[in-house]
Amino acid sequence: MLIKTIGFLAGLLTTVSFLPQVIKTYQTKRAEDFNLLFMLLFTLGLIFWLFYGIIIREWPIILANSVTLVLNFILLGMKMKYKKK
Predict the structure, then answer these.
(1) Between these two residues, 33 and 51, which has the higher pLDDT value?
(2) Contact 7, 58 (CB under 8 A)
(3) Quick one: which of 10, 11, 25 has its CA closest to 75?
(4) Which domains does the chain carry?
């Protein structure tokens, strides 16, 4: 039980850490400081972590990476929407 709690806590903290950036990007309508290659590689890593969590049936990994993936897709969408022309 302690191991699962540690996993959920780690997932919660790393996932919640994305919220301030999503909020700030939405408020400022600026995303040019995000490196697109970094964001794409990070998204790919999240997808593999999600698949890994599903394969081994570990809910802390599945939940944390699912939510972080959604937040990262939101940031990617804002990166595309707010890019300078």
Answers:
(1) 51
(2) yes
(3) 25
(4) 2-81 (1.20.1280.290)
